[in-house]
Amino acid sequence: MIAKAYSSALIGIDGYVVTVETDMANGIPSFDIVGLPDAAVKEAKERVRAAIRNSGFELPAKKVVINLAPADIKKEGSGYDLAMAAAILTADNKLSQDKVLEYALMGELSLAGELKKINGVLSHSMGASKSGIKKIIVPKDNAYEASLAEGITVYGASSLYEVFMHLSGEKELQPTVTDAKELIKNNMVYDVDFADVKGQPLLKRAFEIAAAGGHNVIVMGSPGSGKSMLAKRLPTILPDMTIEEAIDTTRIHSSAGTLPDDEPIVAVRPFRSPHHTISVPGLLGGGADSRPGEISLANNGVLFLDEFLEFAPKAMEGMRQPLEDGKVTIARASATNTYPCKTMLILATNPCPCGYYGDRRRSCKCSQSAINKYLSKLSGPLLDRIDIQVEASSISYENLSENQGESSHDIKERVMRAREIQRTRFGSDTKLNSDIKTKEEMDKYCTLDKAAENILKQAFQNIGLSVRGYNSILAVSRTIADLDGSESIDIMHITEAISYRRLEGKYWSK
Ligand SMILES: [Zn+2]
């Protein structure tokens, strides 16, 4: 007899319904799985057989063939175990086919028949809901996450036996219900604050502008100047995540297996700071298990790349297109996966190979040619995507004796006001000043008076700006004026914006 159960496969962060078909026939007892399964899926037969037996059922001595359809989607991981077990029990007349087909069934089975947590559950429940399935059974530890999906009732179970009792109507599971808004509110806590950081007023100001207009930043400064300490606090002055943003970011972390055990949702903006020795797939995504990379784990948050010039050139260059598109596409032999990567990029670099060029505490030991060579590793096209360039000063005695800095809460209020102005300007929740790209938009939104225009012209000639650099200054000056609550871009706004482009003339002039 042939029986069916529904399960789900992940492509990128989207779940697609997979039909698990089981044919059970007389013949020499055997167990085969077909339909583009990977190694972990093939191993399911050992787990599923043992789990059925150890849950108190007898596996009939028959020839069992399991087909996962559609065959052109690559099936990965151990999440199909439960649906396979249910299909076998249905083929053996222990469960009703109609009842089983009301559900999507997800979860890995242990040999003892326990249901174990899997990755990507939220995407699976959203995918199932989208295709019209009204109920899903998932491992108990995944139930809260799964229940963030709309239009589907979620049941968490801890064993195959519990699932059997539920599907046979003998003892029903309780549905898990989650209020996403409430869950985000309860988990929206940062454990760091701008008030922790003394000194560095210029750097703090640059980060405030970056947060207000969504601009990328490069920070140059010697080791120990507090670059990473401040970058880590950048998410705390960004607007709260919307439900949509939280759900998208949760799906990425869930499919990568980086969702913390006690948190079913990513409610605060992520901060990712991979080490410079990271592989290209580690940064951009892909690799043997096709995971999302750090650039996607930072989606809707901040990607901080310290000692950026030490990253592999391929990693640096590989980021350009994804940053432009807000998504990264990874082609593999069997499939193409796309992951979102809308992130604020903060690059940090030492000013020279030894790290102490221009530092007041220690002298630099590098030759000018070594410094030039070092800094030239940053390519023009990538630099073009960074609106704000700023130098971190070495922390002096006065800085350390200074009182507490301003709190994230206060800075965030100013950021929110500037964001509100942009919302009105663009009539959009997502478009920011950093997205002003075309000449028409520049002319429309970034008009300068004669005096401001003259200053910009002078700067353009003096510091050897690229056209993109010129546009960056205009966009940043727009954000500075917004923070100032000013409709017009005045001399002081443009002058400050020019100051965030000085490194280009100093180190990377063409
Ligand atoms: Zn040096």
What does this structure look like?
By secondary structure, the chain is of the alpha/beta class. The chain has 3 domains: 177 residues, 2-Layer Sandwich (Ribosomal Protein S5, domain 2); 243 residues, Rossmann fold (3-Layer(aba) Sandwich); 75 residues, Helicase, Ruva Protein, domain 3, CATH 1.10.8. Strands 12-15-18-11-19 form a 5-stranded parallel beta sheet. Helix 2 packs across helix 3, helix 9 packs parallel to helix 19 and helix 22 crosses helix 23. Bound molecules: zinc ion (ZN). The site of zinc ion has 8 residues, from loops.
Give the secondary structure arrangement, pairings included:
Layout: E1 2-11, E2 14-25, E3 30-34, H1 39-42, H2 44-54, E4 63-69, H3 81-91, H4 97-100, E5 103-105, E6 108-109, E7 115-116, H5 121-130, E8 135-139, H6 143-146, E9 153-157, H7 160-167, E10 175-176, H8 180-187, H9 201-213, E11 217-220, H10 227-232, H11 243-256, E12 271-272, H12 280-284, E13 285-286, E14 291-292, H13 294-297, E15 302-305, H14 313-318, H15 320-325, E16 327-331, E17 336-340, E18 344-349, H16 368-375, H17 380-383, E19 388-391, H18 397-401, H19 408-426, H20 439-445, H21 450-462, H22 467-483, H23 491-499, H24 502-507
Parallel strand pairs: 3-4, 5-8, 8-9, 11-18, 11-19, 12-15, 15-18
Antiparallel strand pairs: 1-2, 2-4, 6-7, 9-10, 13-14, 16-17
Helix pairs in contact: 2-3, 9-19, 9-22, 21-23, 22-23
Bound molecules: zinc ion (ZN).
What labels describe this entry?
Ribosomal Protein S5, domain 2; alpha/beta; 17% strand; Helicase, Ruva Protein, domain 3; 40% helix; binds zinc ion; 510 residues; 3 domains; Rossmann fold; 4-stranded mixed sheet
